[in-house]
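Predict structure. Input: PTH hydrolase, 134 residues.
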Amino acid sequence: VAGLGNYGLRGTRHSVGMEVLDQLARQLAVAEGWRVDKRCCADVALATAHGLELVLLKPRRFMNLNGLSVASAAEVYSLGPADIFLVHDDLDKALGKVAIKLGGSARGHNGVQSCITALQSNEMTRLRIGIGRP
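Output follows.
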């Protein structure tokens, strides 16, 4: 589960994916387990939920390069594109609205496009978090 955003710019609308991962880590009781994984240039926490082993990932890069971290983590943890769940902001959705998208285009989102390019696939499931337009 990769939370897309601009690392180091907490609290901004475009880093909502990372904020969601922080909340998920708290709910799964692994919030203290974040560690830097230099192999994929990301903060990583391992968790288990409903019998599934999860790799929670917050890339330590700017949004348009998040895919490099996601692709490196996929290699390190032996994951394919269909195993990856992206959490990201969506300007076209009203603030607080969420939607799941099963693969397809990036719809203009630079972080998602970076992941599609780096993984050479658009099969990743996405959780789109509405941030609305200013």
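The first helix runs from residue 16 to 27.
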